[in-house]
Amino acid sequence: MIASGPGIFFDGRISARLSVVVELDRASLIARGGEGQILARWPYDELQRLSAPSGWLRFARRDNAVPARLEVRDPALVAAIDGMTLAVVPPPTERRQRRRVIIWSIAAAVALVVVGTLGVPEMAERLAPFVPDAVEQRLGDVVDQRVRSMLEGGGPGQRLECGMGPTETSGRAALDEMVGRLAAVAALPRPLNVAVIRRSDPNAFALPGGRIYVFEGLVARSDTPDELAGVIAHEMGHVAHRDATKSVVRTAGLSFVFGIVLGDFVGGGAVVVAAKALLQSAYSRDVESAADAYAIDLMQKAGADARALGSILMRISGALEPGMAMLRDHPETRDRVAAIDAATPAHSGAAMLSPIAWATLKRICSGM
To answer: Which residues partner with 61 through β-bridges?
Structure first.
């Protein structure tokens, strides 16, 4: 054993947070429960980093069918994990770098032809499905940094992300329970990272790489857990269809392609423009209708009330605020709700969360 320390483990099946001992060996990270039993053994090269406050590590196992995650806050253990993940993924050799440049140079040339013949929107549709997961994840990391910088603005010492304060962790666990129930039936090829942030708008949006942000205002205006789950399921539809990546490609155009070639998304202003576009997402009617259909199917598979999505859309459609993205340029709300109701039978099952868990989730932004 190389190093060990405390951690917090969420197994993706129940909302409880488990205190664990995190151990590092030469090949993998191990999380042990209170009785020494192994709860997770994740190879370093399969770790998927998730968004976390500065100084923390939060990650999942890439392509894991269960949305489990682990949080580490001990500085020494954080440093040790960083060292092991860097050691297990060696830097590319000069030959591999040269090969990558050649491959993506060819891709850039092809993209130039596509743009010349079909235009940027068609290029986005054609190119996005072939963007490797690793590239999309890197793009998501960069866009996420830009988005967070645009959304920051709380009071001194106030975190942007809810669920991190000592009085909010139970709310975060309830959110994880809801997301875990949806993720279990969605079977997406990448882990989801869903967070609630301190913004008063009734809004939500998805970024490349599986990140979904839900605004505090949307949680506040949701009357039932199924309403909030319906919106999250809709954003999961955008993740499944890679709509955010298509939006970035469409907005950034060839700057995105050349960013891939150079291995640098950060240097150009195109990513800044793309981040702003995602905050003000204006997807087409067909794209939004497809995400609605995905949400209906997902909610039904999860045993939840798919019509709840229509209920919250009707409620917040009369409360649009400048800059609020969730409904602007979407299909007419009444037509959208009618389509949801027509495709969904009446629901008579249990809600996504128990009344106690829902009340806890509603307080996810109650502290600091």
So the answer is: 47
Catalytic site positions = 235
Residues 353 and 222 in one domain: yes
Domain boundary among 33, 66, 88: 88
pTM of the prediction? 0.70
- Cα dihedral sign, 323-324-326-329: negative
63: domain CATH number is: 2.30.29.30
**DSSP notation for 72-84:** E--HHHHHHHHHH
Structural domain of 351: 133-361
pLDDT by residue, tens only, the chain of 368 residues: 678 899 999 887 766 778 999 999 888 999 999 888 999 999 988 888 877 776 788 888 877 767 788 999 888 888 888 777 655 444 444 455 555 555 555 665 555 555 544 555 565 566 667 677 777 777 788 788 888 888 876 555 568 899 988 889 899 999 999 999 999 999 888 788 899 999 999 999 999 888 999 999 999 999 999 999 999 999 999 999 988 888 877 776 655 555 554 455 544 555 565 666 667 656 788 889 999 999 999 999 999 999 999 999 988 876 444 344 444 444 577 888 888 989 888 877 789 999 999 999 999 998 75
Q: How far apart are CA 213 and CA 216, in angstroms?
A: 10
